[in-house]
Design a protein that fits this description.
Structural class: mainly alpha
Number of strands: 0
Number of helices: 8
CATH architecture of the domain at 228-272 and 289-362: Up-down Bundle
GO molecular function, one term: actin binding
CATH topology of the domain at 228-272 and 289-362: Methane Monooxygenase Hydroxylase, Chain G, domain 1
Radius of gyration: 51 Å
Largest sheet: none
Distance between the termini: 149 Å
Helix content: over 70%
Order of helices and strands: HHHHHHHH
Mean pLDDT: 82
Keywords: Actin-binding, Repeat
Low-confidence stretches: 278-283
Protein name: SPTN4 protein
Shape: rod-shaped
CATH class of the domain at 228-272 and 289-362: Mainly Alpha
Length: 368
């Protein structure tokens, strides 16, 4: 039982063997007291004087042999215990690696199934989930580093303990598992980094689309203002409207650079659309949806450019109309002033009387 090479093929089996070993060691402890009592009784026969049923040297040799056999049994039990403890440590560590690898496979499946959203809101939500996963990876990274260091130490212990064949096999198995776990962790980090880059590009893409929509909505509002048929009812109201309209033109001019930059931005975004958010698997449907979204954004940019041109055209036309209306109302004011002046002169001429005094006649004549 003690020279058996069976150290278990998994953790539960090793635990079972350790329980059996404990029972065997308890049996050895119980038999030790019995052997010591028998040896003590046998030695008494070697001390007899007179008649001796057996040669005392034979008795001493026999007692010594029994003691050496018992000591060998204890040594075998200790070696067996150490081998089983090392085996349990090995299988417990391998189980820990298996659990870590299962966690990695789960995260790989999650990354493979995740897209990058259909709009800005869903992309932001997925980015939040990805940040949570990055936090989990950070915690796991430290734990895995510690586990791998323990694995290296355990590998050295396996090479130095037990039988050469068993130790070599255990060390080889452990070395292979450590290499597999490192490779899978490296793959997981690569997939995580790739998904993060895709999410960033998707966020930039959807943010661009949202900004383009906001710009289009703003231009629609300006178009409604620029196409108003309110030109005022007098020179004061027309002048106020013209000042407001000049502010509108200034806003349009400020946005000219942003509108002109849209085409360059969408070109840089669509250039990376092929790798923007496709999953590690086939993902043909996802890529098709992304391509359609890219085309929609390009169409949207063209619409924004056309809308901007229309708003500028309408705004310039309204500015001319407001200037014309202001000129008309100014002319109306001047005409009204002339009419008032003429009426005053008509009233004065109709009411003019020739004075009888010379001095007053000269004054009237001067006015005339």
């Amino acid at each position: 039982l003690l020279v058996s090479k069976d150290l278990g093929k998994h953790l539960l089996e090793v635990e079972d063997l350790l329980q059996k070993q404990s029972l065997l060691e308890a049996d050895i402890s119980a038999q030790t007291e019995r052997v010591q009592a028998l040896n003590a009784a046998a030695l008494k026969f070697s001390e007899l004087e007179g008649y001796q049923p057996c040669d005392p040297q034979v008795i001493c040799n026999r007692v010594s042999h029994v003691r050496s056999c018992l000591e060998e049994l204890r040594e075998l039990a200790g070696a067996r215990r150490r081998d089983l403890e090392a085996s349990r440590q090995l299988w417990a560590f391998l189980q820990e690696l298996e659990e870590a690898e299962a966690w990695m496979r789960e995260k790989e499946q999650i990354l493979a199934s995740k897209g990058c959203g259909r709009d800005l809101g869903s992309a932001l939500a997925l980015s939040g989930q990805h940040r949570t996963m990055l936090g989990e990876l950070g915690g796991r990274r430290a734990l895995l580093h510690q586990a791998l260091q323990r694995g290296e130490r355990l590998q050295a212990l396996q090479r130095g303990g037990g039988s050469a064949a068993a130790a070599g096999a255990a060390a080889g198995r452990l070395r292979q598992r450590l290499r597999e776990v490192r490779q899978r962790w490296k793959k997981l980090e690569e997939l995580t980094g790739l998904h993060q880059r895709r999410l960033r590009r998707a966020l930039a893409f959807y943010q661009f689309a949202a900004d383009a929509d906001d710009l289009a909505a703003w231009l629609q509002d300006l178009y409604r203002l620029a196409s108003s048929d309110d030109f005022g009812h007098d020179d004061h109201s027309s002048l106020a409207l013209l000042r407001q309209h000049r502010g509108l033109l200034q806003q349009l001019e400020k946005q000219r650079g942003a509108v002109l930059a849209l085409r360059e931005q969408v070109a840089s975004l669509t250039a990376s659309a092929g790798g923007r958010c496709s999953s590690p698997g086939p993902g043909s449907e996802t890529r098709g949806a992304e391509t359609a979204a890219a085309v929609d954004v390009q169409i949207r940019v063209v619409e924004v450019e056309q809308l901007y041109g229309e708003v500028v055209e309408v705004a310039l036309l309204r500015q001319q109309w407001l200037q014309d209306a202001l000129a008309v109302y100014k002319m109306f004011g001047e005409v009204h002033a002339c009419e008032v002046w003429v009426e005053e002169k008509e009233q004065w001429l109709r009411g003019m009387e020739v004075p009888e005094e010379l001095d007053e006649v000269e004054v009237v004549q001067h006015r005339w």
